UniProtKB/TrEMBL annotation:
The keyword Metal-binding does not apply. The chain crosses the membrane at residues 18-37, 49-72, 103-125, 137-158, 165-184, 254-276. GO terms for molecular function: ABC-type transporter activity. It comes from Halobacterium bonnevillei. Pfam families: ABC2_membrane_2 (PF12679). Keywords: Membrane, Transmembrane, Transmembrane helix. This is ABC transporter permease subunit. GO terms for cellular component: plasma membrane. It comes from the Archaea. The keyword Transmembrane applies.
Length: 282
């Protein structure tokens, strides 16, 4: 057997799951609904993508959690893991095969959702949807999906039970999205950074806060979607408010935001694999 065999078998089993159908169905329905509803308020489909990006920023990591958190922990809990590794599979082939399988489903969900959204936009909007803008949006969202799938599969690799894997995954979501971004009114990362600066007698500048905030894969995703609105940022006030700025701060650079998302996916998975490689499976 091999990484390909592990991924193929896991994908075959996963695609028959109601969870997989639910992930693809919910994501497609919600994205299509947002695009359809925005047609009553805006003539340009790319304005709907702005609203879709905030929907995905908040909910996509939650939607794909059931798809990923049991990828390895579920096999360990049921004893299937011993059988899988009893075959001629290395632990690396097993872990990365699981990643390829679950990531494949998540990426397929994104592609299907955006393809349906494009089809929905064609007859509804005054101005025709741009294939290029939809393609750029889809590409950035695919990398966003990779970042969280990597984090979640890593949690599944380091935990020994379903309940711990579930708590770890949902804890990662709340830490990386609402806490890091600053949605919680008092206890959030920006406030903690400011508090730490006050205790040390230093002032944390707004630009430093922005860079720290951008180190979350979710925040990096929102910033990276700026590439979708090249040449039309000033057409809508809400888009301009989020992407118009002076100078070229690091957190607004496309390469930086893409690197942040890639680093979370690759880095967390490597940490998870190293822990899994040393763990006792008995």
């Amino acid at each position: 057997m091999s990484l390909y065999t592990v991924a193929r078998d896991d994908f075959t089993n996963a695609r028959r799951s109601y969870i997989v159908l639910g992930v693809v169905g919910i994501l497609t329905a919600m994205v299509a609904l947002i695009v359809a509803m925005d047609a009553d308020h805006h003539p340009d489909p790319y304005r709907a993508l702005f609203d879709v990006s905030f929907f995905l920023f908040l909910t996509f990591p939650i939607v794909i959690a059931p798809l990923t958190y049991l990828s390895i922990a579920g096999d360990r809990d049921t004893g299937v893991l011993k059988y899988a590794l009893g075959l001629p599979n290395t632990r690396a082939e097993y872990v990365f095969g699981k990643l390829v399988s679950r990531l494949g489903v998540a990426l397929a969900a994104v592609v299907v959702a955006m393809a349906v959204a494009f089809v929905v936009a064609v007859p509804l909007y005054e101005n025709a949807p741009s294939v290029e803008r939809f393609a750029k949006f889809t590409g950035v969202t695919l990398l966003f999906a990779f970042s969280f799938v990597g984090v979640y599969v890593a949690f599944s690799a380091v935990t020994e039970s379903r309940s711990r894997a579930m708590l770890g995954v949902f804890g990662a979501y709340f830490f990386l999205v609402p806490f890091w971004f600053g949605f919680f009114p008092t206890v959030n990362l920006p406030n903690l950074v400011s508090m730490a600066g006050d205790l040390l007698g230093v002032t944390v500048s707004e630009s430093t806060q922005d860079v720290i905030r951008a180190l979350s894969p979710a925040t990096a995703y929102l910033s990276a979607t700026e590439i979708v609105y090249t040449g039309v940022v000033d057409q809508y006030d809400q888009v301009a408010m989020n992407f118009t700025y002076e100078g070229s701060p690091l957190d607004r650079q496309l390469w930086f935001n893409l690197a942040v998302m890639a680093a979370w996916g690759v880095g967390s998975l490597l940490v998870g694999f190293l822990s899994f490689r040393r763990s006792e499976l008995g």
